[in-house]
Design goal:
Length: 665
């Protein structure tokens, strides 16, 4: 719809003359400014691009990459829409698999196809139809920028030509046949499939927790850092790795302990090239005769098969770094009494003669009392060997170029929260009081609440991860990264405690309980969600809060849709470590021009099965929230920016026509 002409007075234009003079440098004539207005108005009438939301990926790179390739079923739906009953289900399935894994699928096809030229011709025509469909939401300019360099011109001709058009039919068919004749079909198919993947999703939102548990966080980060349009809302596991890179020794110990607990040495050694030999040597020397049953790694999800000897070494390393972690955390809470976590210096609470520990006024027997490096007179002090080891590990993390690249990506694309198109995304929580009001949280001597709290923490994380030691407050910011990982008032955690020590060393399951903050229950109420949305400048009508962090236990009847649809919790167990609790393999959210689709996924067996058998992730839509009318770009945040640009250009046109600014011909 063309906006009605707005009359601008000369006085209004004079007030903005400085800005309009600057704008005229980019649009020096009436013709150029008018052309840009036409372009912007046309863009605003295109359908809104598709947004894809994922959270709590936890290193599951194969499932992550597959969901990314199939766009949570978007490509499969497109194929069904285009070909309907004109193609057999097996053919549609094979086409989808080709789009997801073109290189691997081509190799298999060439082993079985009797007439590969005919297959090429049929397949190229089908791919062009799919590509034409997924590109239809975008301007030609945007599509052209996404085209592969070697085939840009050819793809443009195929997308905008038609084999049904009598005037172009022979031209269109000749392009296809020449691609095959020149033996460029394989390369062309691969590029077309990657282009379809690229155009199926306009923007990707990662709502926290890329790291830990699964075997390939580094692979996921490589993908994210190269993705065309991505944002990240940091989770506590992401901040833990960022804190490790920043040099926080307690964060480093936690990173190592979690990696060893899940037998995930690939991320440490292959992913980041961290030298684990000093830790292994120390652990084997120190815990050579220890009973390591409590520290045996969970290797069901590991990428490699370990021998019994390797498993014992990992268990020794696991125990060694766990003890170091408890010592470092004890030092941390003593150094920062303002964290109000002195009760978490747990080694100080142990009665070494009786092998018990006192927690919250109750005495518990310890499952393990063999801690040869612990001095009962000063339990949190590192031994000389541990001190040397920690210094080595600190240097390994802080000087790691691959980790620096990934942390830079987290800083560049990431933030504590994001408001986009009436959706408020943050990983875990906004700390609340029991009465539903925003909780005051002390951060480095000042008190913040609500949005101001997340803004302050955002700045603090940026400060901690900048390696310039001259930045004021950097050392204190680096320490606070550990608090963000496990502190009771951390919006990335918001639980009474992280009961790592208790789960390892105490049999009593009651001691393992982590009491959740008020947000996790109160945000199930519409009124509380509305309060939070208003705090972040969003309307209450039609807006959503999107979280992860707490796995939705679908197997127990839990629902990811909260507060009558105002809040969506899309952590459903992407990590295999959680799937026994959730009963599924994660939720993802797709927001396209017609509305929301919340998709529930079954476990992804393997990339190999997907390629060889066309085995897709089995997905079910658990929420369809359709708009009454199809959303256009003008209905989005980007559309409002474009509309303001049109307004500014209208003013520039008025200034040209009144002679207030001269055209530069």
């Amino acid at each position: 719809m063309i906006p009605q002409h707005i009359h601008y007075s000369t006085a209004e234009l004079n007030r903005e003359m400085r800005y309009l003079q600057l704008l005229s440098r980019s649009f020096p004539t009436i013709a150029v400014a008018s052309t840009e207005i036409i372009n912007l108005e046309a863009i605003m009438d295109l359908p809104k691009g598709t947004e894809h939301f994922l959270t709590d990926i936890h290193g599951e790179y194969e499932a992550f990459q597959h969901v990314l390739k199939n766009a949570s079923g978007t490509i499969k739906r497109k194929v069904n829409e285009i070909f309907g009953s004109t193609l057999r289900e097996a053919d549609k399935k094979a086409l989808c698999t080709l789009i997801y894994y073109p290189r691997e699928k081509l190799q298999l096809v060439k082993l079985t196809e009797a007439d590969i030229s005919e297959w090429y011709e049929i397949t190229l025509n089908r791919l062009v139809k799919v590509c034409r469909s997924v590109s239809s939401k975008y301007t030609r300019s945007k599509v052209n920028k996404a085209l592969p360099k070697d085939f840009s011109y050819i793809i443009q001709e195929l997308l905008h030509g038609s084999e049904e058009d009598n005037n172009q039919s022979a031209y269109y068919k000749q392009i296809i046949s020449t691609i095959i004749y020149t033996r460029r079909a394989d390369a062309f198919i691969i590029e077309m499939c990657l282009l379809i993947q690229r155009l199926a999703i306009d923007s990707l939102h990662i709502v926290g927790d890329i790291y830990d548990r699964g075997p390939g966080a580094h692979i996921i980060m490589d993908t994210i850092c190269c993705y065309h349009n991505v944002d990240i809302q940091w989770g506590n596991h992401d901040v833990l790795w960022m804190g490790a890179f920043a040099g926080n020794n307690a964060c480093i110990a936690n990173v190592l302990r979690i990696s060893l607990r899940y037998g995930n040495l690939d991320t440490l050694e292959e992913g980041y090239g961290l030298n684990m030999l000093p830790l292994a040597t120390f652990a084997m020397d120190t815990y050579s005769d220890s009973d390591l049953g409590l520290y045996s790694p969970r290797i069901n999800n590991a990428r490699r098969i370990y021998t019994e000897k390797e498993i014992r070494i990992i268990a020794q390393m696991h125990k060694a770094v766990s003890v170091i972690q408890w010592k470092l955390e004890g030092q941390m809470v003593k150094r920062h009494p303002e964290y109000k976590m002195t009760d978490r210096s747990l080694l100080d609470n142990i009665d070494w003669s009786n092998g018990t520990v006192e927690l919250e006024g109750k005495t518990y027997p310890l499952r393990d009392t063999d801690f040869p490096t612990v001095d009962p007179e000063n339990p949190t002090r590192l031994s000389p060997e541990e001190e040397k080891l920690v210094n080595h590990l600190n240097a390994s993390f802080t000087n790691n170029e691959k980790l620096k690249k990934h942390v830079d990506g987290l800083l560049r694309h990431g933030s504590m929260y994001l408001s986009r198109n009436k959706n408020l995304m943050f990983h875990a929580s906004i700390p609340l009081n029991a009465d539903g009001t925003f909780r005051d949280v002390a951060v480095m001597g000042e008190t913040f609440r609500g949005r101001a709290l997340l803004d302050r923490i955002d700045t603090l994380i940026q400060t901690a991860c900048r390696t310039n030691s001259d930045i004021p407050d950097r050392e204190e910011s680096v320490d606070y990264m550990w608090y963000l990982w496990c502190g009771p008032d951390s919006p990335l955690f918001d639980k009474s405690k992280m009961a790592t020590f208790e789960r390892y060393l105490l049999d009593d399951s009651e001691a393992h309980r982590e009491e959740k903050g008020a947000y996790y229950t109160l945000s199930n109420e519409e009124s509380v969600c509305d309060m939070i949305l208003r705090e972040f400048g969003l309307p209450t009508e039609g807006s959503h809060i999107i979280n992860g962090h707490v796995p939705v236990k679908t197997i127990q009847g839990e629902n990811p849709v909260k507060a009558n649809g105002k809040r969506l919790v899309i952590d459903g167990g992407f990590s295999k470590a959680y799937q026994s609790q959730t009963g599924i393999a994660g939720y993802t959210l797709v927001y396209h021009s017609r509305g929301f689709q919340l998709v529930q996924h079954e476990p992804f067996e393997s990339r190999q099965k997907a390629i060889e058998e066309g085995q897709d992730i089995i997905s079910n839509t658990v929420l369809n929230e359709y708009n009454e009318k199809r959303m256009k770009v003008r209905d989005t945040d980007q559309g409002r920016i474009l509309a303001q640009q049109v307004t500014d250009l209208d003013k520039l046109l008025a200034a040209y026509r009144r002679g207030l600014i001269k055209e530069d011909n």
